[in-house]
């Protein structure tokens, strides 16, 4: 899909999808099937992410892959024989499902040789960005975020205030021990907070807020220097 917005510099052009983890929480399924290909009803998480990235106008999906997880990239291939067979049998709905991932946007593989963590995975994406791309999106397939256009609002905040923008969701205080919890200050805008710190999986009594991190980030490219 081609980004048709007039000012591309004000839009997220590349979405990075880290997909090179070991998926230990889903063993034994993830012995042979990458976590990112596990289905939500009938669609793999990685395709839902591609759909979300396309919905916010991105035209590049930089997928961080592991040497033993090549099937993740294969999901975006055209599968002409399968399409032809389905269409010859009049199975148009199924054929459309097969073709969809291939038509959404341009996937680019970036290999992470060893699972050295999420930060390392995101750090590998710099080579994919255009020189004038000052920020980019990161979407984790572990989290489903609705509406699919949530990142549009994050980019609008970035364009107004600069820096990086992280998506938070509200949870019950008792649930904060499961999450990375933001320490925040208010801004003039009720829906935008300034992050001053973060506590990973705190005791609820020590949680600095009930706003927790989800897998959506708009990151300034300066993060690569860090
Ligand atoms: P997770 O921590 O949820 O993924 O990382 P994981 O390591 O595969 O899962 P568990 O804890 O062992 O079950 C969030 C995302 O970051 C990717 C994962 O593939 C996942 O999409 N990731 C994680 C990488 O790309 N590289 C890494 O080294 C670690």
Enumerate how many helices there are, as a single number: 6
Principal-axes geometry comes out as globular
List how many beta strands DSSP finds: 10
**Spatial order of strands in the largest sheet:** 5-4-1-6-10-7
The percent range for strand residues is 25-35%
The CATH architecture term of the largest domain is Alpha-Beta Complex
The H-level CATH homologous superfamily of the largest domain, spelled out, is: Spore Coat Polysaccharide Biosynthesis Protein SpsA, Chain A
Assign the CATH class of the largest domain: Alpha Beta
Terminal CA distance reads: 32 Å
The helix fraction, in percent, is 10-25%
**Sheet/helix structural class:** alpha/beta
Tell me the number of structural domains: 2
What is the CATH topology descriptor of the largest domain? Spore Coat Polysaccharide Biosynthesis Protein SpsA, Chain A
Radius of gyration: 19 Å
- Overall pLDDT level: 94
Instruction: Give the low-pLDDT segments.
Output: none
Question: Largest sheet at a glance?
Answer: 6 strands, mixed
């Amino acid at each position: 899909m081609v980004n048709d917005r007039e000012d591309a510099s004000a839009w997220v052009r590349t979405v990075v999808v880290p997909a090179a983890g070991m998926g230990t929480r889903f063993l034994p399924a993830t012995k042979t099937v990458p976590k990112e290909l596990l289905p939500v009803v009938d669609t793999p998480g990685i395709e839902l992410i591609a759909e979300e990235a396309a919905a916010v106008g991105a035209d590049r999906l930089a997928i961080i892959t592991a040497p033993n997880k090549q099937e993740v990239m294969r999901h975006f291939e055209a599968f002409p024989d399968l399409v032809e067979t389905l269409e010859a049998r009049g199975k148009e709905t199924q054929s459309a499902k097969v073709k969809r991932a291939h038509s959404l946007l341009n996937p680019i593989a970036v290999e992470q040789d060893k699972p050295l963590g999420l930060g390392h995975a995101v750090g590998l994406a710099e080579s994919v960005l255009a020189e004038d791309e000052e920020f980019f999106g990161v979407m984790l397939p572990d989290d489903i975020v609705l509406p699919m256009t949530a990142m549009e609002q994050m980019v609008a905040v970035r364009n107004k205030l600069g820096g990086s923008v992280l998506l938070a969701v509200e949870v019950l205080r008792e649930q904060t021990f499961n999450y990375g919890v933001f320490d925040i200050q208010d801004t003039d805008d009720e829906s935008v907070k300034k992050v001053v710190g973060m506590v990973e999986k705190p005791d609820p009594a020590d949680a600095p807020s009930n706003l927790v991190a989800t897998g959506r980030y708009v990151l300034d490219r300066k993060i690569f220097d860090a």
